[in-house]
Amino acid sequence: MAALNVSVVSADQEVWSGEASMVVARTVEGEIGILPGHEPMLAILAGGEVRVTLPGGEKITANAEDGFLSVHSNDVQVVASRASLA
Amino acid sequence: MGAQLRVYRQKIKSAQTTKKITRAMELISASRIQKAQARVAASTPYSNAITRAVSAVASYSNVAHVLTTEPERVDRAAIVIFSSDRGLAGAFNSQVLREAEELTELLRSQGKEVVYFLVGRKSVGYFSFRRRDYERSWIGGTDSPLFDTAKEISDAVLEAFLRDAADGGVDEIHIVYNRFVSRITQVPVVTRLLPLEVVEGEEEPDAKNEVFPLYEFEPDAETVLDGLLPVYIESRIFNAMLQSAAAKHAATQKAMKSATDNADKLIKDYTRLANEARQSEITQQIAEIVGGADALSSAK
């Protein structure tokens, strides 16, 4: 199965990047889960946590504040002015 | 000790003290360049991600936005000048101010009124010395800019842009800052920030995926663009501040290096002169003694 290339980026640094099997984020319209092969998407994030599931099943949570989420051919970018690993 | 010699020794001493200071400043800014450069590099993924997202929205949707549409008439333009808080940086501040003045002249010749937003104590000093008006200024923290300051600046700039021209709003925003090219070169850059010129169709469909992907926007393209563009402006301003900070440290290092070299040269020159003065003093004393002895022996 293809994996997602995820990067969590804040204004002054790249917080986390790597491969993942699933990303769950909260957008202004509700929670959204992204699996490999998701259609291209741009969404505005509501403040809250972003959960990244690694291929091994391990989970990483990050806090992102006013940012957005972009998905493009298995590249997922969580971009926020302030973001940190929880 | 002769008066001449004393003067030279004083000059040598003063050049030595100055050299110590400039040398210390050179070393300090040399270490700060690296930190500032690292911060520029660390913020690059963010601005890349935002630029990609903005160009994606622009390419895959047909939304007209206030920030991207050219106004029919431009009456007033704003210039944001990024200078430093401290001097001793060679041409750093003067070149950015010169660029700003050239831009002002150009805008005035097009019949536009110009208002200023100033960042850094040096540009504020330049303006208040000439008793010129400016809209707002930010002082302090140009050595290691904070994202909060960038946010504040972009909020102020956007507010001015969105205000009606009749209430003192502006229709165009330009930024002038020093870009860090290398430790030796820093170039003043002038760019128009608003209205945005979004580069469309940056991503070509690749071979295996021959159709343009259909983007999904959540909640919708307009809202996404609404949220994205201010962030884009913020990141551009933050980037300008970081670049300017790195360039400032590089300029200081260069200026202090040449000041140290100059002090070295002065010390060398004055040491030569002091030696010469000492030697001629001794020669003169010997001549006097010999002359005196001669006079004594001939008097007998």
Automatic annotation (TrEMBL), chain A:
Principal subcellular localization: membrane
Membrane topology: Peripheral membrane protein
Domain ATP synthase F1 complex delta/epsilon subunit N-terminal residues, every copy: 4-83
EC number per UniProt: 3.6.3.14
A matching Pfam family: ATP-synt_DE_N
GO molecular function, a single term: hydrolase activity
GO CC, any one term: plasma membrane
Signal peptide (from-to): none
Localization, UniProt: Cell membrane
Enzyme type, top EC level: hydrolase
Keyword terms: ATP synthesis, CF(1), Hydrolase, Ion transport, Membrane, Transport
Family per similarity comment: Belongs to the ATPase epsilon chain family.
Subunit structure: F-type ATPases have 2 components, CF(1) - the catalytic core - and CF(0) - the membrane proton channel. CF(1) has five subunits: alpha(3), beta(3), gamma(1), delta(1), epsilon(1). CF(0) has three main subunits: a, b and c.
The protein, known as: F0F1 ATP synthase subunit epsilon
Organism in which the protein naturally occurs: Agromyces tardus
From TrEMBL, chain B:
Family: Belongs to the ATPase gamma chain family.
Lineage: superkingdom: Bacteria
Topological relation to the membrane, as annotated: Peripheral membrane protein
Function comment: Produces ATP from ADP in the presence of a proton gradient across the membrane. The gamma chain is believed to be important in regulating ATPase activity and the flow of protons through the CF(0) complex.
Phosphoprotein listed as a keyword: no
Protein name, as recorded: ATP synthase gamma chain
Keywords, in A-Z order: ATP synthesis, Cell membrane, CF(1), Hydrogen ion transport, Hydrolase, Ion transport, Membrane, Transport
Localization: Cell membrane; Membrane
Keyword Ion transport: yes
Gene Ontology cellular component terms for the protein in this record: plasma membrane; proton-transporting ATP synthase complex
Subunit structure: F-type ATPases have 2 components, CF(1) - the catalytic core - and CF(0) - the membrane proton channel. CF(1) has five subunits: alpha(3), beta(3), gamma(1), delta(1), epsilon(1). CF(0) has three main subunits: a, b and c.
Molecular function terms, GO-annotated: ATP binding; hydrolase activity; proton-transporting ATP synthase activity, rotational mechanism
Source organism of the structure: Agromyces tardus
Gene: atpG
GO biological process terms on file: proton motive force-driven plasma membrane ATP synthesis
Stored InterPro entries: ATP_synth_F1_ATPase_gsu, ATP_synth_F1_gsu
Main localization category: membrane
Database matches in CDD domains: F1-ATPase_gamma (cd12151)
PANTHER family assigned to the protein according to its UniProt record, in alphabetical order: ATP SYNTHASE GAMMA CHAIN, ATP SYNTHASE SUBUNIT GAMMA, MITOCHONDRIAL
